């Protein structure tokens, strides 16, 4: 069932190593069918080289595996938490891409220093608080989703304005209206992190981008006045 | 019309990801036919993988689209401004190449530290001032061209001596007597930026290159006494 | 004899340049048949491009070459020392991968800053003490093995919990239950080293990962409670 | 004439971009036939993609072009100077490889921090003094060779112990008993420079390698007691 959804999830998963976002088996992508409340996700610990569309595991929003012979990614509860909290998103991607992960490990948000960043995010790419020993000891992957949601709720962030987060000590998660868009955001996050790291080498106290330029760039690509791309809604 | 011009612009555009200068759809190249006052430019937000020569959009120097079904790059007014101000140039390239963009984000020119740099530029690669809220709010992309031109006019820079600029908080623009040369300069800018960043790590107060060595290297490749390459005019 | 073992060692050796872990001929991999007490190792100074399975040299645990026309890697005594001391391992890999070697040259362990690291190691990747002039002057490669073993013995490290080491001033050695796993660990070490270097740029005094998160990540992939991957024993 | 020599020089030249040592047309390799006193060198400013063995230009040790329709590399006098001074070498390579050039631009030798470096060099990779305005104004490329030779003569360096140099503000030159070996050294220099830069980030005051380890590693690959590789004389 849901062959098209599984294919989308599959294509997103294999795009990750192709774009240099994945080392070994660190990473996974999922795509949801909102009408059915079911998402397709990568099986756990399978090499990308051997992955097939049919290996994708189908899971519903209660966390029940509804199809698939393989065990789903161990990060499945994090994906599920995000699909439940962020109702407008259609796909989630998790990578350990090197530069973004360096910020996550350091517990630092990625500061918004230029228009490349502003084309995708309406501010710094946020980092979560550290997880508590109790959160880690119990339903760890579900709680990982919870600290992400907490970060967005407390700051009143719209997930469409901030389509990525860094989990403290861990790595980035991204999302989009579909999983292909979430892959694109993952590429952007890695590239932005690399640039930010170098800008910080040049100017350790570099202030973030001016509000007027941030507004201009984000809005020319997003929302009702958008004029970038062919549809005005890239 | 202008099939050859469109092909040149197309070749330049697809050369950008091939040389690792482009992430996602960040970047564009244009080529002008001076006799007709028309330039060919990449359409907005189209993936490089799917680009065809016929997708190139033709625009005249008044900014009127004269051919093409797709919308031209949102950066088209910046290209047009440069073609109007710098009359000797035949092509313009814009990238967000990572190392050069790191300097642009930090509002720093790329200091001239060695002969690699001196083979292409007669001094530091300049950075513009920041744009004002008013410039950003109105004709943003046209005003981006204006701050570039202002930077060159105020410093009395010849665009042939300085075939690139960093737009503050944004990224590099390059040019050349034709668009293939502008691509070559984009490659050089990225490479020079990378080297400069590392030289600064080694020596944070490194002075720029000695005048006599700058003169020698720039002049052996450019101008009447040039003796590099097969034509003396590389 | 031992065609399968030689093929395994061969596959591991050619995987090293494929994953960007090797420059020139710096590196080697070996696989052991524990029942026979014989291991297969790369011949010394042979270009990876020309390597064939039959070039692998067979050596026993007393250091006697039991098959092969070529001379074994000059690092053979280090491999032998590790096979003797760490009885559970089936393969050893040595590279000079750039980021990990930068730590080794600086005499620094790779600090454990995030979950990528914790998925493979139960703490910092240790570095040996410097070798003494006498150790260097005598059986250098054997003594290289000895300082590794000394590091593990003195700290009571289980080689399964710490499947890699940095030899001071030199480079990393890794191991695993088979040589393919040792290659995987080599990839992980290089990637972890790169991330750690960048995290240190961001936060020079960054503390290492919290104990509870380290435990969680290491244990979800290793040991009796593991639930990552398809077998629970990745 | 000298078809074999031209082919060797050609192979070395096209190996440079293949190994990521060359950006644009920055670089050249030459091979000498000592019995004839003639060397083959890359033509000036020709794209590596279009290079053919027959494009190699033959030049004698007096600097006279003895064959070839194209102009030889503008760096030809530097190569010639090195062939005259260092009588045991059979090939010279010049690149602007990024990490090594960063050291050259900063006027810094590459400090010897580990065994990777010690396998190729018997100490730091030296940097020349800056050239004087007069040296630059007159026979610039010949004088570039002269400052290299001066550096070696004043320090009594054997070119076999130090098969590379950084020209201040410029970039590396390497050499070897043949041009293929000079290419190999160019790869090693770039890799060593990258590692040194990172080790310096970790430990800005890192002392260089201990004398006994330097001796051991250099001597196990070079000279009468060498035991690395298949011939003992790699």
UniProtKB/TrEMBL annotation, chains A, B, C, D:
Superkingdom of the source species: Bacteria
KW DNA-binding (keyword) present: no
EC number per UniProt: 5.1.3.4
Gene3D superfamilies: Class II aldolase/adducin N-terminal domain (3.40.225.10)
Enzyme class: isomerase
Catalyses which reaction(s): L-ribulose 5-phosphate = D-xylulose 5-phosphate
Requisite cofactors: Zn(2+)
One of the GO BP terms on file: pentose catabolic process
Family annotation (InterPro entries): Aldolase_class_II_sugar_metab, Aldolase_II/adducin_N, Aldolase_II/adducin_N_sf
Keyword Hydrolase found: no
Membrane-spanning residues: none
UniProt feature coiled coil, ranges: none
Record domain Class II aldolase/adducin N-terminal: where: 7-197
A GO CC term attached to the entry: cytosol
This protein's UniProt keywords: Carbohydrate metabolism, Isomerase, Metal-binding, Zinc
Family under the similarity heading: Belongs to the aldolase class II family. AraD/FucA subfamily.
PANTHER family with a match to the protein in the record: FUCULOSE PHOSPHATE ALDOLASE, L-RIBULOSE-5-PHOSPHATE 4-EPIMERASE SGBE
Name this polypeptide is given: L-ribulose-5-phosphate 4-epimerase
């Amino acid at each position: 069932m849901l062959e098209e959804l599984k294919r989308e999830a599959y294509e997103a998963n294999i795009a990750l190593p192709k774009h240099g976002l994945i080392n070994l088996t660190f990473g996974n992508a999922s795509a949801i069918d909102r009408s059915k409340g079911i998402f397709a996700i990568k099986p756990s610990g399978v090499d990308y080289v051997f992955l097939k569309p049919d290996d994708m595991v189908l899971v519903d929003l209660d966390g029940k595996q509804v199809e698939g012979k393989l065990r789903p990614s161990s990060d499945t509860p994090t994906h599920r938490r995000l699909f439940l909290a962020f109702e407008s998103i259609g796909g989630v991607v998790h990578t350990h891409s090197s530069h973004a992960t360096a910020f996550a490990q350091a517990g630092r948000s990625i500061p918004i220093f230029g228009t490349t960043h502003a084309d995708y995010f309406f501010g710094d790419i946020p980092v979560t608080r550290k997880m508590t020993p109790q959160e880690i000891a119990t339903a760890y992957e579900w709680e990982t989703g919870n600290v992400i949601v907490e970060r967005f709720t407390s700051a009143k962030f719209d997930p469409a304005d901030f389509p990525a987060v860094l989990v403290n000590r861990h790595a980035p998660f991204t999302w989009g209206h579909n999983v292909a868009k979430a892959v694109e955001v993952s590429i952007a996050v890695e590239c932005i992190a690399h640039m930010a790291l170098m800008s910080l080498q040049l100017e350790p106290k570099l202030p973030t981008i001016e509000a007027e330029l941030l507004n201009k760039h984000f809005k020319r690509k997003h929302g009702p006045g958008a004029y970038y791309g062919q549809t005005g809604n890239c």
